[in-house]
Amino acid sequence: MTRSAFVSTYPPRHCGIATFTQHLATAVGGREIVALHASDLPSPYPLEVHHRLRTSEPEEFPRTAATMRGCADVVSIQHAFGIWGPDETAVLEFARALEVPAVATLHSVPAVPTPEERHVLSELAANVSGVVALSQAAATLLVSVYGVDPALIRVIPHGIPDLPLLDAETIKPAVGMGGRDLLLSFGLLGPGKGIDLALRALPAIIAARPTTTYVVLGTTHPDIPPDAAEAYRAALVAQADRLGVSGHVQFIDRFVGRVELTRWLEAADVIVAPYADPGKSASGTLPYALGAGRPVVATAFAHAREVLADGRGILVPHDDPAALATAVIGLLEDSEGRLAMGRLAHEHSRSMTWWQVGAIYREMLVKVASAPVPRRDTRRPPGRLA
Q: How many Å apart are CA 297 and CA 327, to the nearest integer?
């Protein structure tokens, strides 16, 4: 079996990429985990974590990269801005020091990057043997904005658990929502999530459907400073009060595991994904919603336009609470149409289950492991761009 090392954040860190990597590494098998470790995080990792790469210690990046030759045939680098520490170019020092081939999965591909963001993604792609984009939208950006060779890129969707298609009414009592219309937004909370737009749509929804409850599930994103995180959540609570909808909103402020998240997904009538960034090219929430067979109402960001095509969801304009309310009310009042949309979503998601995604990664990693290591440019100085 090809020995694969995964370099990423990892549980117990409360981070979507950490959870992604745990599921992916399990599905691929033959795994070696290198956990990106911030000094303020808990350190009792699972047994499969054999290396900790302290993101506050720049000298560890090339040193840890050099050790990969003895424990892996190929390295899977997970990248999103913020997870590699305060210096965004640190991932480049790691990639350039590798003596084995590597594949980079790019979780965030800004449509309008800063010069540093463009530099990091372009150079990371130049120092690996393969690049995974989570959507066609992200792949297009990598070519047109970042100058990545399209021959390097493979589009592999975000993996999801293999869930059956269940009737929401049978699950609602388990989450205390029996007899309610349940709207759900989930994932790590931050300003880009667009929850304020959903709250602005809620008065009209409640007027039409008085039994509606909107659940916002998830703790604040760990990259947001604690004081700012508390202020942001408090602002959302205050907004709900001002709008007179606080009795119809539940903020569940904790990181939930797969079992609890599954219950909420299966209990929901409609998933609401009102992301603020029109250029957002990847979202883990959309595949999870489709995998549970739930219709989605989303703003028309790039990944939503791709995933929710062909009747698998409804797109609404950004900053248009009336349009969002109309779409949600239409689904809640049309049970047959809502269930039909959920079935389409569920059928489309079958290619995204972790065992399917793991098989695709495994095939790619085996192929890359047998290829020559690319000639990496080790002359570039470390540190941030000027």
A: 7
**pLDDT of 296:** 98
Mark whether 215 and 260 lie in a shared domain. yes
CA atoms within 13 A on the CB side of 6: 28
Q: Is 218 exposed, middle or buried (0-12, 13-18, 19+ CB in 10 A)?
A: buried
- What CATH number should be reported for the domain holding residue 344? 3.40.50.2000
pLDDT of 224: 74
pLDDT digits (tens, 9 = 90+) for 24-38: 999 998 789 999 998
CA distances from 55 to 87, 262, 356 (A): 9, 32, 32
Q: How far is CA 292 from CA 19, 161, 228, 313, in A?
A: 18, 9, 33, 13
- Domain with 28 in it: 4-159+353-369
pLDDT in tens, 237-273: 999 999 999 999 999 998 888 899 999 999 999 999 9
Q: Determine contact, residues 73/4, Cβ cutoff 8 Å.
A: yes
Helices (H), 57-150: 60-67, 90-97, 115-126, 136-144
What average pLDDT is seen over the chain? 93
Q: What is the pLDDT of residue 378?
A: 54
Tokens of 59: 């000298």
Residue 114 has pLDDT above 80, yes or no: yes
Distance, in Å, from the CA atom of 205 to the CA atom of 363, rounded to the nearest integer, reads 47
In this structure, are residues 61 and 44 in contact, taking their beta carbons and an 8 Å threshold?
A: no
Q: Tell me the two tokens of residue 124.
A: 């990371």
Contact (CB, 8 A) for 86 and 79: no
Is 207 in the same domain as 77?
no
Provide the domain count of the chain: 2
**Whether the model pTM is above 0.70:** yes
